[in-house]
Amino acid sequence: MFTYLTKKTLEMLITFVGITVISFAIIHLAPGKPTDVLTDLNPKITPEARAKLEKYYGLDKPVTTQYALWIKRVVMLDFGESFSSDHRPVWTKIKERLPITLYINIASLLIILVIAIPVGISSAVRRHSLYDKVTTVGVFIGFAMPGFWLALLLMMFFGVHLHILPVAGLKSAGFADFTFSQKVIDILRHLILPIFVSAFGGVAGLSRYMRGSMLEVIRQDYMTTARSKGLTSNRIIYVHGLRNALLPIVTILGLSIPGLIGGSVIFEQVFSIPGMGQLFYMSVMSRDYPLVMGILTIGAVLTLAGNLLADLGYAAVDPRTRR
Amino acid sequence: MTDMKTYAIISRLKANKMTVTGGIIVLCLFLAAALAPLIAPYDPEAVNRHSVLSAPSRAHLLGTDDLGRDVLSRMLYGAGISLSVGFVSVGIATAVGIAIGAAAGYYGRAVDAAVMRFVDIMLSIPTFFLILAVIAFLDSSIWNIMAVIGLTSWMGVSRLVRAEFLSLKNREYVLAAKASGASDLRIILLHMLPNSLAPVIISAVLGIAAAVLVESALSFLGIGVQPPTPSWGNILSAGKDNLEIAWWLSVFPGLAILITVMGYNLLGEGLRDIFDPRLWDERS
C-alpha cells in the first residue's frame, strides 16, 4: 500500500510539472514578447498593466528562471491580477466561480453513473434483444449529439414553447425575496437542463463501455464456474461479474474528467451560468491573459484530482492494486 | 458449429450495413461540399435586407438567417468547411500520433517511458480549455483551428501505434530486416507501419467525428470559423440569438452536424468490426 501511494504521488507530481510546462509554453506562443502582442490586440492595456505583466512573468530573465518564478507563484495560488477593469486577483475571481461548476459536474457525473451502469449491464445480459438494439441506437445518437445543439433544442422546447423551465442563469427575478425552500427549488429548476445536457453524452459513452466490459466478463471461466455451481443468474451477474466489469469503467471515468470540465465552457455559456467555464470564455474573448492562464492551470489541477480519485476508486474495487 | 458460423456471417453483414450507411453519409457530405457552387440556390454570403429571418418557403427551402442569407446555401458551403477541418486536423493528429507512437514502440525503454508520460500529461489537460487558450493567444483563423485540434488529439493514435509496434518488433520479418542492415526509419515505415494501419485508420475515422464536433462547438461559441465564412456552428450561433422567432436556424445545422458525426462513427465502428479478426468467428 505504501509503495503504491508513493508511486502514485510521484506520477502526479511529474504530471503536474508537465502540465504547468505546457501551460507556461502557451504564454510564449504569441510571436515576440507576450506583452508586445497584448498591446497590439488589446489597445486598452495601459503601460502600467504592461509593466506589471513584464514584472509578473519576469520577461527580462532567461526562460528557465521565468518558469521557476511563475511556478513559485502558482503554487501559492498567485496568478496575478485580471486585466479587466475591476483589477481583482485572478484567484479571487476563480474562487467565486468554481463551486457552481463543480456542483454541476459532480451532479452530472452521478447521473451518468446511475443511468449508464444499469443500462450497460442489462443490454449486455440481454444481448441482441430488442432492448439491446434500442439502447445501441440511442448510444449512437448520444455519441453524435453536439451538446450545445441539444441545449438549444431543450431551451426551445421547454423554455420558449412550453414555458415550464427557465432557460438562462441560476436565479429568477425577485430571488432575494424568496423563502429558503423557494430559493432551493428555483435554483434546481434552473439547473435541470444544464445538468441534463452535460450528462447526456456521458451516459451514452459510459453505458457502451459498461456493456462491452460486461460482455468481456461474461465470457470468463470464473463466470462459467459460478454458473455450474448452480448460483442464480442475478448473483452471478451482480456479485461475480459486476465487480470485475467495473474496473475498466473506473479508468474511463478518470479519463473522461477533462472532457467534462472542458464541456462546462459550452453549457455554461449556452445557459448563462456564472461558473468557471463562462469565466474562461469571457477571459478568452477579452484576452485577459492572467485569467486564461489561471483557469487553465486550475482546470488541469482539477483533472489531476479527478485522476487521483479514479486511482483510489480502482484500488477500492480491485484489492490486487493495493499490494 | 453451424450456429456459430451463421452468427459470424450475420454479424459481418451487420457490420457491413453500418459501414455502408456511414459510407453513404460521408459520400453525401463530399458531394454536397464539391457541388455546393453548382447546386446552392444563392450566394452563401449574399446579404438580403428584404428577407431577414424568413421561415422555410419555396424560395428559401431552409429559411434565411438574421442577415437574410439563405440557410441551405450556407449549409452546403459549410459542409466543405466541416470536411476540411475534419480531415486536416485528423491528418495532423494521425501524423504526430504515428511518429510519437512508433518511436515509443520501436525504441522502447527510456524513450517509451518518457513518451508515454508525455501522453498521460496531454490526456490530463482539459483539451477544450487548451484549445480556447491557444486561440486566445493566437487568432482564430481556420488554419490555427485545424492545427490546434490536431495537436491536441494525437494521443489515442500514438497509444495504438505503440501497442502495435511493441507486438511487431520481435517478429521474424522485422528481425530479418534489421539483420540485413535496414535503417530504423526504413523498418518503421516500410515493414512495421503497413502492418499496423488498420486500427490507425479506424481511429482516424472516429477522430474526424470528434474534430467536427469540436469545430462546430468553437464556431458556435464565436471563436471558430468567423463569419461571413459559413460553418454549421456559426449558423447555430445565430440560431441561439433568435431562438424564440427562428427555429429553422437552430434545427437544420444541428441536424447536419448530428448526421455527419453519426456517419463517421458508423463508418469507423463498422470498419472496426470488419477488421477485428477476433470478432469473425467468436462473436455471437
From TrEMBL, chain A:
Subcellular location: Cell membrane
UniProt domain ABC transmembrane type-1: residue ranges: 98-310
Topology of this chain in the membrane: Multi-pass membrane protein
Gene3D superfamilies: MetI-like (1.10.3720.10)
SUPFAM superfamilies: MetI-like (SSF161098)
Keywords on record: Cell membrane, Membrane, Transmembrane, Transmembrane helix, Transport
Keyword RNA-binding tagged: no
Transmembrane intervals: 12-30, 100-125, 137-160, 187-206, 245-271, 291-317
Primary location class: membrane
Keyword Ligase appears in the UniProt entry: no
Family statement: Belongs to the binding-protein-dependent transport system permease family.
Protein name: Peptide ABC transporter permease
Source organism of the structure: Candidatus Magnetominusculus xianensis
UniProtKB/TrEMBL annotation, chain B:
Transmembrane residue ranges: 20-40, 76-106, 118-136, 142-161, 196-225, 245-267
Keyword line: Cell membrane, Membrane, Transmembrane, Transmembrane helix, Transport
Membrane topology: Multi-pass membrane protein
InterPro entries noted in UniProt: BP-dependent_transpt_permease, MetI-like, MetI-like_sf, OppC_N
PROSITE patterns, A to Z: ABC_TM1
Pfam annotation, one family: BPD_transp_1
Domain (ABC transmembrane type-1): residue spans on this chain: 79-268
Subcellular location: Cell membrane
Principal location class: membrane
Family indicated by similarity: Belongs to the binding-protein-dependent transport system permease family.
Listed name of the protein: Peptide ABC transporter permease
Provenance organism: Candidatus Magnetominusculus xianensis
